[in-house]
């Protein structure tokens, strides 16, 4: 019998891709194949690609060619599987352009990875019954829980619906079982992600919604916390805010992507809102959760954006006072309706406007971070970085926000109370109590 092939994953892109890779890796562990961390030790590498914007597509292509040119030739019969969003987006065109890859696996077919590996290697997967396979790999201290797939919105700049299809909620019992598995195996923070998590449940029978999911996740036994990411503004309802207020585990942290403030630009984006409605929403959130930390994302230089509209967005960010703002210069994405709009701006104009927004956002964000000095916050300890013990408060999401540098003894994976004694930009410095 041939030796079981070793499988490694290389994952690019967002946390939703990380969850997809994690689920595929769990399926590998339930098969006859071996899972390895290092591609150098692998017979098959699965490259899970991102294609949300052109820069991500270019990174995915570069990584695929690097694996094909530098990794495959080093050992006989190595196989490269290109999976994920780039495959879903470009399909047959990608297969023609990249003959170096041995198989292509779109997002919708990732559950068939074992069959693809079996075809490429000639070694039977010999997988046990699906019911016996773990839903995920044992997590680190932070774990993402993808509550839905796809999106029904038609924002004119976004390719996600074309890549990942229509919005589909995961059944609530499946999510609760997955969350219990993650917590039982060491997760101390569960981060709910999806293209549009506030729409969770609208396609399910029984009236389940994000508020009811939050309520049931909050009842799971264990020492952990819950974070909500990617809440479209119309989904931040009084019912959801009430569920967060009543919950004992949910971080008072909301990520609400607004994208712009100008009513006419938002309309061109296929979105709704205005500075007034945005500010009213933020006021409702802050009344319900006075200690909330808020994140948003905005796009600079959308086609047709005037200097006046760019200044309107700057003024809005100064007044709205977000803790964190992700600023993106507009990128024309193939296949989106915005790509064919008139009035595309030169790159230098888009980049200059994006930088102005970052400067406004930083000035506010640094001030809000400094205002936390003197408070006592609960910190999840994540380990050491360059000799310093680091962690995150409820107001700091993984990978995208600041961190907290801790002074004093703090075991990795534990929650500790720390008095904030300083701030450096978005980062905090805390003394362990």
What is the total tally of β strands? 18
Biggest sheet: strand arrangement: 6-9-10-11-12-13
Which CATH top level class of the largest domain fits?
A: Alpha Beta
Strand content: 15-25%
Mean pLDDT: 91
Q: What would CATH call the architecture of the largest domain?
A: Alpha-Beta Horseshoe
Main sheet attributes: strand count, strand direction, barrel closure: 6 strands, parallel
Q: What is the straight-line distance between the termini?
A: 58 Å
- Given the C-alpha coordinates, what overall shape results? globular
Folded structure, characterized:
This protein is of the alpha/beta class. The protein has 3 domains: 6-132, Rossmann fold (3-Layer(aba) Sandwich); 142-370, pyruvate-formate lyase- activating enzyme, CATH 3.80.30.20; 376-432, Nucleic acid-binding proteins (OB fold (Dihydrolipoamide Acetyltransferase, E2P)). Helix content is 34%, strand content 22%. The chain is built from 12 helices and 18 strands. The protein has helices at residues 15-29, 54-71, 85-97, 113-121, 160-164, 172-184, 210-218, 238-246, 263-268, 275-288, 307-320, 347-370; strands spanning 6-11, 34-35, 44-49, 79-84, 103-106, 142-146, 148-149, 168-169, 189-193, 225-228, 250-255, 293-300, 324-329, 376-385, 388-392, 404-407, 415-424, 427-432. A 6-stranded parallel β-sheet has the order 6-9-10-11-12-13. Strands 2-1-3-4-5 form a 5-stranded parallel β-sheet, with helices on both faces. Strand 12, helix 11 and strand 13 form a beta-alpha-beta unit. Helix 7 runs parallel beside helix 8 (238-246), helix 10 (275-288) runs parallel beside helix 11 (307-320) and helix 11 runs parallel beside helix 12 (347-370). The longest helix has 24 residues, at 347-370. It is globular and about 60 Å long. The N and C termini lie far apart (58 Å).
């Amino acid at each position: 019998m041939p030796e079981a092939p070793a499988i490694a994953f290389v994952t690019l892109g967002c946390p939703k891709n990380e969850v997809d890779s994690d689920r595929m890796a769990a399926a590998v562990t339930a098969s006859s194949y071996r899972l390895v961390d290092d591609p150098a030790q692998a017979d098959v590498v699965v490259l899970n690609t991102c294609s949300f914007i052109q820069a991500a597509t270019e990174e995915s292509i570069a990584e695929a060619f690097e694996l094909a040119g530098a990794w495959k030739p080093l050992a006989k019969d190595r196989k490269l599987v290109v999976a994920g969003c780039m495959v879903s987006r470009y399909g047959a065109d990608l297969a023609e352009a990249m003959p170096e890859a041995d198989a292509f696996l779109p997002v919708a077919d990732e559950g068939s990875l074992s069959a693809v590996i079996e075809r490429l290697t000639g070694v039977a997967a010999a997988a046990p019954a699906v019911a016996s396979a773990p839903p995920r790999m044992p997590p680190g201290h932070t774990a993402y829980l993808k509550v839905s797939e796809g999106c029904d919105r038609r924002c004119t700049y976004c390719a996600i619906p074309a890549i990942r299809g229509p919005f589909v909620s995961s059944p609530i019992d499946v999510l609760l079982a997955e969350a219990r598995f993650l917590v039982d195996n060491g997760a101390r923070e569960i981060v709910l992600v999806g293209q549009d998590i506030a729409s969770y449940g609208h396609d399910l029978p029984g009236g389940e919604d994000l508020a009811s999911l939050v309520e049931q996740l909050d009842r799971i036994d264990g020492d952990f916390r819950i974070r909500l990411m990617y809440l479209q503004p119309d989904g931040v309802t009084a019912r959801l805010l009430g569920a967060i207020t009543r919950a004992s585990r949910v971080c008072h942290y909301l990520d609400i992507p607004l994208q712009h403030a100008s009513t006419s630009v938002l309309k061109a984006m296929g979105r709704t809102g205005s500075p007034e409605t945005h500010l009213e929403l933020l006021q409702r959130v802050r009344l319900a959760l006075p200690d909330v930390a808020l994140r948003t994302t905005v796009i600079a230089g959308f086609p047709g954006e005037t200097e006046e509209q760019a200044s309107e967005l700057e003024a809005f960010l100064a007044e709205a006072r977000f803790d964190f703002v992700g600023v993106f210069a507009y990128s024309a994405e193939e296949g989106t309706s915005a790509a064919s709009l008139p009035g595309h701006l030169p790159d230098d104009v888009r980049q200059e406007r994006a930088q102005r927004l970052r400067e406004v956002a930083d000035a506010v964000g640094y001030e809000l971070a400094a205002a936390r000095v003197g408070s006592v916050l609960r910190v999840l300890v994540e380990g050491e970085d360059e000799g310093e013990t680091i962690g995150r408060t409820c107001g700091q999401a993984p990978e995208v926000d600041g961190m907290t540098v801790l002074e004093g003894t703090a075991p990795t994976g534990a929650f500790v109370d720390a008095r904030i004694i300083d701030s450096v930009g978005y980062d905090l410095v805390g003394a362990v109590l």
